[in-house]
Amino acid sequence: MTQLQCASAVHPAATDARASGSPPPAVSARPWKRALTVFAVAAAGLALWATARADFLASPGWLAAQKAGLILGPIGAGIYWMRRRPGNRFGLLLIVLGLLGVPSILESSSDPTLFAIGVLDGTPIYAMTTVVILAFPSGRLEGLPERLVLAGLVVTMLLVVAVTESASHLVPGLAIPDCRAACPEPRLGLAAPRSDGIVEHVLGVLSVAVALGTAAVIAWRFHTGTPPRRRAHAIGSPIAVLFLLTAAAYRGLLVFEPGGLGAGERWIQDWLRWGLAGTLALIWSGYLLALVAAQLFAARVLRDVVDASMRRPSVEGLERLLRERLGDPGLRIGFWCERERDFAGTAGEPLEPSPRQALTTVEREGRPAAAILHDVQLSDDPELLSAAGSAALLAAENTELDRAWNASLRELEASRARLTQASDRERRKLERDLHDGAQQRLMAIQIKLRLAKDQTSDPRLADDLEAIGADAEQAVEELRTLAHGIYPPVLRSYGLTEALRSFSRSAPIEVAVRDDGIGRCPRTVEAAIYFCSTEAVQNAVKHAGDGARVMITLGRDGPLARFAIADDGVGIAEPSSAGGEGLIGMRDRIGAFGGEFEIRSSPGAGTTVRGTVPLNGNSR
Questions:
Q1: pLDDT at residue 253 above 70?
Q2: For position 544, which CATH number holds?
Q3: 394: which residues sit within 8 A by CB, 6+ positions away?
Q4: Residue 64: enclosing H or E segment and its boundaries?
Q5: Where would you tag: which of 117, 264, 377, 471 has the fewest CB atoms within 10 A of its CB?
């Protein structure tokens, strides 16, 4: 994986733009939430009971279901939003919408005053519904289009107040039906505007404009949003858009046909009114589904990230995965740099959010660990940011593990190299000690024996001295052979090729040495290849069979010294078991310098020992 470096400088804007980090975990329901839930259930039950008993209303059963849905649905969905996204105000807006539906229960009262309050409650319900639609999914109203629509909504409400004060009867709210016979005064119904009802016409046109403008804002958000935001609107906004279009058509019909449609076309008006009431009562369900879908999608992203992390990808690989899954081509992962006390990217560069980006930090054990630089729209999807934060932590931990693993591996290789070098030094020292010490003493003894023999006149003693001298000469030869085996002087003086050729002349089987241009190598590399080659020849003597021949090939491939020892013997079925400790010693010698070693063999096809050793980083 990529090794992370701290930046030498971090732009101050990176700190200023830092977001709050991963979303806090869901908390248990607080007492006020439980109390609010009980209140919503009780209010919905009261709405069902009171509306179903209102005999003067048409379709009281459907109206009861609508009113119960206007209360219980938004409040329940809002509580769930607040539980899953405590930092998002959209849940609070849903709860306010549900609470505004409570006074509409009074529309089922036969008391004129209470009835009027219930009818007038339709206006704040409609206004708050528009606010909720504009605030999805961030819980905020931002941007000039939203402000223009909100301003139009405020003017609309002011005109409603003006019309209500001047009208002889009320402008209806969003109820499904009219009254069957007579409503409590003031009468509930759609009054035809007076001949001078300019305000009513302006109100109708403005209502249509607000509805269509709100729908246009949602369409623009879908067109320009990130894939997660488009996915949220694709699930949460269809019912809301249908409500807005239905409201625009219904209000437009009242503007152009103030007296209502004829009997043959009355069904169009009825269907629009029923569609308006039904979509209004079900808007909350789309937003609830959008939240559940976001959680499911985040779980799938997290699963993909975990699956990918099992393959130990690089940090760049995890970044590409998150960019693809989250639909944010500018997403980057950074890590905490203790030296700079800030976050840095994979190459040590500072994480600098642009105006359309945010920096979300991820903590581990209460300390900053990683950060995600992402599109600001992703701040509205804390589930995805939580998944991305988990990926960032995985990347950080994998990087730390890789760093520790590589450091341990380098230390192990260095330790093995030190041991091998120390062993070679001891070999050379022992060879020198034998040559300069014991061997010289034996030769001195030989000289003294010859002098003693020349000075004696006793033939028997002279023969004994001659025999002792021969034994001493044989001991010198054996000691010379032993010393050369410990560390041959020819290897030190003339290099690897000549040392192996010298060894081949005394080998018990036929050994040929081919030099493909290996030249002189660092002393430690030459010693490793030499002793590995001689050990392989000794194995061939033991296992290749009678008449086997051995070819030693030496060469160089750029920064690598290569060697191969091949025999044409009987071969072995399991080459890894051949050689015992000798094979282990060969692997250790080559591995100590970061080299590669392999042995290949099969019955009847001989055995080949092959390896490469890096030349750089070793001293002569």
A1: yes
A2: 3.30.565.10
A3: 305, 306, 309, 318
A4: helix 60-84
A5: 264
Question: Per-residue DSSP letters for 179-205?
Answer: BSS-PSSSPPS-PPPPTT-HHHHHHHH
What is the per-residue pLDDT for 359? 84
For residues 448-466, give the mean pLDDT.
76
| Interacting residues of 158 by C-beta distance below 8 A, sequence separation 6+ | none
Locate tokens 């009867």: which residue? 169
In a domain, 324, yes or no: no
Alpha helices in 136-265 (DSSP H): 144-166, 198-224, 227-236, 238-256
DSSP 577-593: GTTTHHHHHHHHHHHTT
453, part of any domain: no
Alpha-carbon span 472 to 476, nearest angstrom: 6
Is position 334 within any domain? no
Question: Is 159 in contact with 224 (CB distance < 8 Å)?
Answer: no
The side-by-side arrangement of strands in the sheet containing 357-364 is 342-344, 332-337, 367-375, 357-364
Q: Collapsing DSSP states into helix, strand and coil, what is residue 358?
A: strand
Amino acid at 89: R
Return the closest-CA partner of residue 590 out of 616, 617, 561, 566: 561
Q: What is the DSSP letter of 57?
A: B
The closest of 614, 595, 603, 612 to 553, measured between CA atoms, is 612
Confidence (pTM)? 0.61
Residues ≥6 apart with Cβ < 8 Å to 313: 1, 321
Structure tokens at 617: 């980083």
The CA distance from 468 to 140, in Å, is 108
- How far, rounded to the nearest angstrom, does the alpha carbon of residue 583 sit from its chain's CA centroid? 43
Residue finishing a domain among 238, 271, 297: 297
Residue 538: which domain range?
A: 491-614
pLDDT score for 13: 34
Q: Taken in order 366, 368, 371, 375, is the CA torsion positive or negative?
A: positive
H or E stretch at 562: strand 560-567
Domain boundary among 297, 326, 351: 297
Local confidence band at 436 (pLDDT 50, 70, 90 cut-offs):
low
Mean pLDDT, rounded, of the chain: 77
Question: What per-residue confidence (pLDDT) applies to 8?
Answer: 34
Instruction: Tell me how far apart the alpha carbons of residues 202 and 159 are, in angstroms, rounded to a whole number.
Output: 8
**Terminal-to-terminal C-alpha distance of the chain:** 33
User: Is 387 contained in some domain?
Assistant: no
What is the total count of domains within the chain? 2
